[in-house]
Design goal:
The protein is an alpha/beta fold and about 500 residues long. It has 3 domains: about 15-80; about 105-375, Type I PLP-dependent aspartate aminotransferase-like (Major domain) (Aspartate Aminotransferase, domain 2), CATH 3.40.640; about 375-485, Aspartate Aminotransferase, domain 1 (Alpha-Beta Complex). Helix content is about 40%, strand content about 10%. It is built from 16 helices and 11 strands. It has helices at about 1-10, 15-35, 50-55, 65-75, 100-110, 120-135, 150-165, 170-175, 195-200, 220-235, 255-265, 320-330, 360-370, 375-395, 425-440, 465-485, and strands at about 145-150, 185-190, 210, 240-245, 270-275, 300, 315-320, 400-405, 410-415, 445-450, 455-460. The strands form 2 sheets. Strands 1-7-6-5-4-2-3 form a 7-stranded mixed β-sheet, sandwiched between helices. It has a 4-stranded antiparallel β-sheet with strand order 8-9-11-10. Strand 10 and strand 11 (about 455-460) form a beta hairpin. The N and C termini lie far apart (about 80 Å).
């Protein structure tokens, strides 16, 4: 029997720890060079056919040396990123990572803790980072919170608590079918699509989300919101929650959060703030006034992997009422009972969300904040917002370009002017310019349509971006506009 065990008992640990250590040092050295020399590479480039074929290879049956595996990574993965760490990536709203956070992610994987909870250091650090997030947006220490995969899940957490608090029935036990009145949630017509997904997942349906018209500044129209709440009450619905947006994904507009908080109190509604784009402006000295009132919310969703530049993925949901938060998710099966001492003596963090197994997301946030201090992150936010206004001025000064929305935060929406007034012709021109910017390795933008107007969208969330990069962007857009307009 002993001989049999010697043959079948295996491990994933290396046979040669020295060789593994040497390769690990090389990987770290290459990673530092990758970020140091990032400006020497395009933000995005298309993959050749032979690279695409690598990702269609069948399931490996036998082993390969780790050095060979790493060589494939360096040749086929690293040169073809999405590009969001590059200083000229201004497409969808993303953070740009940082070296301390990347090391934190590595160390979290090495330590391997499961953050479902328990009495261990990683769980305490998780709670500490949540506490720091509360401080950033002005929430009381008594509030509750949880780290999640990102903004979509953080918003789902807040809206789930809102549903359960306003259901007028024990919805966990009886389900949404037992609710005496259908709930209504209210948000701007600029609200992120994750809120529709959340209400569908909560069994309330898309019709439960009333999109309120936005004003010329892309903020929710308060008079229209008040009228919608009154109409729903008259129609027999149960107004439940106002969703305020601190930074719309289209244009960076920020709803009047103070006014929404007061209206929620007046109408006895839950007030949730989707702050995944702009909540952290609360730590920015020159711009914290933009999110005044966020501290009055019942729940807030924010994203440390955006303006805290944590490596993906980490979001945070904060809930003012800890009992409501815990009561929405807590389930204590017999195999996860607490004990007076030992590992099970700690808090069960899984009781504040949907995941039982939770990754150690806190370390990458913790290390970067400890290294730089939160004041530097605040200055970087101010820097990005100032860069957005700098770009706006460049666009306003260029006769061939037109800015289409106010610049409130760090998102600038504009279009190239054309003699052809046909909306499809304008869209075709601008999309072609956007694609050529990407394919020529100049910059990565996205496009969107706001109130019927197609436009190019620049979201400046990168701590590596400089004003000279924005000078290049405008110059190249004007050049490409001339080339595309005159091409047959």
């Amino acid at each position: 029997m002993d001989g049999l065990l010697e043959r079948i008992e295996e491990t994933l640990d290396p046979e040669d720890w020295g060789a593994t250590e040497a390769l690990s040092h090389q990987i770290v050295s290459d990673a530092v060079s990758y970020l140091r020399d990032i400006r020497e590479r395009p933000p995005w480039q298309p993959m050749p056919a032979e690279v695409r074929e690598v990702f269609a290879e069948p399931l490996p049956r036998g082993p390969s040396p780790l050095a060979v595996v790493y060589r494939s990574v360096t040749e086929n993965l690293m040169p073809y990123p999405m590009g969001n760490v590059h200083p000229r990536f201004w497409s969808w709203y993303m953070g740009s990572s940082n070296i301390a956070g990347a090391l934190g992610d590595f160390l979290a994987a090495v330590q391997g803790s499961n953050l479902g909870g328990g009495n261990h250091a990683a769980a305490l650090m998780d709670q500490q980072v949540v506490g720091w997030c509360k401080q950033m947006v002005g929430f009381p220490a008594s509030a509750s919170g949880t780290l999640e995969s990102g903004g979509s899940m953080a918003n789902l957490i807040g809206l789930t608590v809102a549903r359960n608090v306003k259901a007028d029935v024990d919805v966990r036990e009886c389900g949404v079918a037992a609710m005496p009145r259908q709930l209504r949630f209210y948000a701007s017509d600029q609200v992120h699509s994750c809120h529709r997904k959340a209400l569908e997942a909560l069994g309330l349906g898309n019709q439960a989300l009333r999109r309120i018209p936005s004003d010329d500044a892309m903020r929710i129209d308060l008079a229209a919101l008040r009228m919608a709440i009154w109409e729903d009450r008259v129609a027999g619905f149960r107004p439940a929650c106002i969703i305020g947006t601190a930074g719309t994904v289209n244009s960076g507009a920020i709803d009047d959060l103070d006014a929404l908080a007061s209206l929620a109190v007046e109408e006895e509604l839950w007030f949730h703030v989707d702050g995944c784009i702009g909540a952290l402006a609360a730590i920015a000295p020159a711009n914290r006034h933009l999110v005044a009132g966020i501290e009055r919310a019942d729940s807030v969703a924010l994203d440390p992997h955006k303006w805290l530049h944590a490596p993906f993925e980490v979001g945070c949901a904060l809930v003012r009422d800890p009992q409501a938060h815990h009561g929405t998710f807590a389930v204590t099966p017999e195999y996860l009972e607490s004990s007076p001492r030992g590992l099970a003596a700690g808090a069960w963090l899984h009781e504040y969300g949907l995941q039982t197994t939770r990754g150690f997301r806190a370390l990458k946030v913790w290390m970067a904040i400890k290294q730089h201090g939160i004041e530097k992150f605040g200055r970087l936010i101010d820097q990005n917002i100032a860069q957005a206004h700098y770009l706006s001025d460049l666009i306003d000064a260029e006769p061939t370009l037109e800015r289409l929305t106010p610049t409130t935060l760090n998102i600038v929406c504009f279009a190239c002017r054309t003699d052809n007034p046909d909306p499809e012709a304008i869209k075709t021109l601008n999309v072609e310019i956007m694609l050529r910017l990407q394919e020529e390795g100049i910059a990565v933008l996205s496009d969107t349509t706001i109130k019927g107007q197609h436009c190019l969208r620049v979201a400046i969330t990168n701590h590596r971006t400089r004003c000279t990069d924005l000078d290049v962007l405008v110059r190249e857009v004007v050049r490409l506009q001339s080339e595309v307009s005159t091409s047959p």
